[in-house]
């Protein structure tokens, strides 16, 4: 079976969960080959990639690859596509992943599918388009299929692969060096899971009422082991940091469970969360549009409902 290249997402030498999902998906369609871009691959990381089915691990360990914004990773993948003729390339549908996918498509004269939430035989993708308003099936008809898959679309399952390592050197064009990274500012990593990777997200909106009241949302999130999200109304009001905004101009999440508290369900918010598997809405207005989307709805004051929910979860 042909190789399917999977671009590894990693932070501080650790492989992110989305990569394990992509390897699982790749295994169902061909032979997964992980691509590690940048220095710092550890024995643990290699073992993890092999554990989830990577038959090959291409390692491009040059410091240069991570010294510039995005473009070097697209060049690395383009060079691998030319050298290995893979059946497809999978990347995570994160902000960076989608940019890499687009650049790679141009470089390899191939078609690209972004925001895939499923991928089946013949690389036919279930794709969420128009800001999540419509789901379609898409297929690349030209070149090498390049597919950006949303985190949490596939449940990661371990199944050992050979994990054979091959070093790759990449020659970067001047264009790839156009935007240099001059400083990295580490975001504080709290105890909560990363928003785009979390299996459960609890989000608060204008209905939360104040920054202090977000402790109610955080309380439920911590009981469920969830990430905290917020609507733009809440982030614009300064109640919660912008990095947690969910929606068209914020992050896209596809968790197993999304709890929206005090959020009306504007189209721009939906764009970031409507591919969640199960949606629970808590809103005091029974006419709130979020209820059209929700699998379960609670009509009530979140300041009463959410603490009760937290208490019940804590009992289990
Ligand atoms: P509201 O629409 O004001 O809704 C608040 C809800 O809380 C109401 O339904 C109300 O009934 C309920 N409520 C009030 N008090 C309580 C209570 N005590 N208990 C329970 N329920 C209560 N929005 C985003 O979220 N993300 C985006 O990325 C985004 N991008 C945008 C991009 C553009 C170009 C534009 C124009 C807008 C964007 N917006 C985005 C804004 C979006 O249109 C909405 O204004 C925003 O989502 C509203 O946030 P909200 O639901 O928290 O507030």
Integer average pLDDT:
95
Query: Could you estimate the helical fraction of the residues in percent?
Result: 25-40%
What is the strand arrangement across the widest sheet? 9-8-7-10-6-1-4-5-11
- Which percent band covers the strand fraction? 15-25%
Q: Helix-strand pattern, N to C?
A: EEEHEHEHEHEEEEEEHEHEHEHEH
Instruction: Note poorly predicted spans.
Output: none
Dominant shape: elongated
The largest sheet is: 9 strands, mixed
Count of strand segments: 16
Q: Based on helices, strands and strand pairing, what is the structural class?
A: alpha/beta
Q: What is the rounded distance between the termini?
A: 46 Å
Bound molecules: flavin-adenine dinucleotide
What integer value in Å does the Rg equal? 20 Å
- The total count of helices amounts to 9
């Amino acid at each position: 079976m042909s190789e399917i290249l999977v671009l590894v997402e990693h932070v501080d030498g650790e492989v992110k969960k989305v990569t394990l999902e992509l390897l699982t998906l790749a295994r169902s369609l061909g032979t997964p080959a992980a691509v590690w871009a940048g220095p710092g691959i550890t024995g643990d990381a290699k073992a993890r990639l092999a554990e989830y089915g990577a038959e090959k691990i291409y390692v491009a360990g040059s410091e240069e690859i991570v010294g510039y914004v995005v473009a070097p990773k697209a060049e690395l993948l383009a060079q691998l596509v030319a050298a290995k003729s893979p059946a497809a390339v999978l990347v995570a549908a994160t902000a960076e992943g989608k940019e890499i996918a687009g650049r790679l498509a141009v470089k390899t004269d191939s078609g690209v599918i972004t925001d895939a939430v499923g991928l089946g035989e013949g690389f036919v993708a279930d794709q969420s388009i128009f800001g999540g308003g419509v789901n379609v099936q898409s297929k690349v008809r030209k070149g090498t299929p390049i597919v950006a898959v949303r985190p949490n679309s596939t449940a990661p399952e371990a199944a050992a692969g050979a994990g054979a390592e091959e070093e790759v050197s990449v020659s970067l064009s001047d264009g790839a060096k156009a935007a240099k990274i001059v400083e990295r500012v580490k975001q504080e990593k709290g105890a909560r899971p990363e928003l785009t990777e979390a299996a459960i997200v609890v989000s608060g909106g204008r209905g939360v009422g104040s920054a202090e009241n977000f402790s109610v949302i955080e309380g439920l999130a911590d009981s469920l082991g969830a990430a905290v999200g917020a609507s733009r109304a809440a982030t614009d009001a300064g109640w919660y940091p912008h990095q947690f905004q969910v929606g068209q101009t914020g992050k896209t999440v596809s968790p197993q469970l999304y709890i929206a508290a005090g959020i009306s369900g504007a189209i721009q918010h939906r764009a970031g969360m409507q591919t969640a598997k199960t949606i629970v809405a808590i809103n005091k207005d029974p006419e709130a549009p979020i209820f059209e989307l929700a699998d379960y709805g609670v009509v009530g004051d979140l300041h009463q409902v959410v603490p009760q929910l937290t208490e019940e979860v804590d009992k289990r």
